[in-house]
Write a structure and sequence with these properties.
Blueprint (H helix, E strand, L loop, with lengths): L10 H8 L4 H24 L6 H14 L11 E7 L20 E7 L2 E2 L2 E2 L4 E4 L5 H20 L8 H13 L11 E3 L6 E4 L13 E5 L16 E6 L4 E3 L11 E2 L1
Parallel strand pairs: 5-11
Antiparallel strand pairs: 1-2, 2-5, 3-4, 6-7, 6-8, 8-9, 9-10
Length: 258
């Protein structure tokens, strides 16, 4: 019907408009970060040997609902991943199951609820019993990556540095645990994963008002003997640096040992 029309992809223009948040949107994320951390803490404190993954998720959702998310209870989800040590299998991506947590299991919480349409993406892990030496090494590795990234995270740098700098730091720290890192996080907003992503090819310059979910992974690849370590926090870029909206003394980046 439009033989002479030229169709142009407008998605780059749309993502450019969405990548810097307004003060109103930032206020939503401050509130959402508190809701996420309270809910996750409730689930992590409930997690122990003998309870099911479904029971843990139920406690988390109770907290979200009590915090006022009853209008959109299914907008945004908590993904429950568990890994039974020694099974040599990847930690599958699950919704709630009736798996009974036992000594040696690990549980990861990923994702989060939404507020007024804006989604959250935070990760924490619990170990039933003491973590293995491999898990401790992988967790130490990601902390090295976070430290390297936070030393450079500020307006004015290209996003690709947020991938390249932590990757190099981790490679130097434990060469024996290298694997092909693909990304270190992503923007978030009306969708849980938005552009730009924290990847090696991203030339976009960081600006104040951007919000990233930063997740530096430590995988036990290729053996899959352990779940590994995957902490993730929501970062707001400020005029001079950043503010971590989800990392608090009560909600640390450390493994939760139960």
């Amino acid at each position: 019907g439009l033989p002479k029309a030229k169709f142009i992809d407008a998605s780059p223009m749309i993502w450019e408009q969405r990548r810097v948040k307004t003060p109103w949107e930032i206020d939503i994320y401050r509130k959402l970060a508190k809701i996420v951390t309270r809910g996750y803490l409730r689930g992590l404190n409930f997690c122990r040997a003998g309870v099911t993954v479904r029971e843990i998720q139920t406690e988390i959702w109770k907290s979200f609902l009590e915090d006022g998310l009853a209008d959109t209870p299914m907008k945004g989800q908590v993904i429950m991943r568990y890994h039974s040590r020694g099974e040599r299998t990847p930690a599958g991506c699950y919704r709630a199951t009736d798996h009974v947590m036992k000594e040696g299991d690990m549980l990861m919480l990923d994702g989060g609820p939404a507020l007024k349409g804006y989604e959250s993406d935070v990760q924490r892990q619990a170990c039933i019993g003491e973590p293995s030496e491999m898990v401790r090494k992988l967790h130490e590795l990601v902390l090295v990556g976070f430290d390297a990234l936070e030393q450079i995270l500020r307006p004015g740098i290209p996003i690709k540095e947020t991938f390249l700098v932590p990757m190099e730091a981790m490679r130097k720290h434990r060469p024996e645990l290298q694997f092909p890192w693909k990304f270190m996080g992503h923007s978030t907003g009306l969708q849980i994963h938005e552009f730009p992503w924290l990847i090696a090819q991203e030339e976009t310059i960081i600006e104040p008002g951007m919000i990233f979910s930063i997740e530096i992974p430590g995988y036990d690849i290729p053996e899959w003997r352990e779940m590994g370590s995957f902490p993730e926090d929501i970062y707001l870029i400020t005029e001079n640096g950043f503010e971590n909206l989800t990392l608090t003394p009560d909600f640390p980046r450390e493994l939760f040992i139960r």
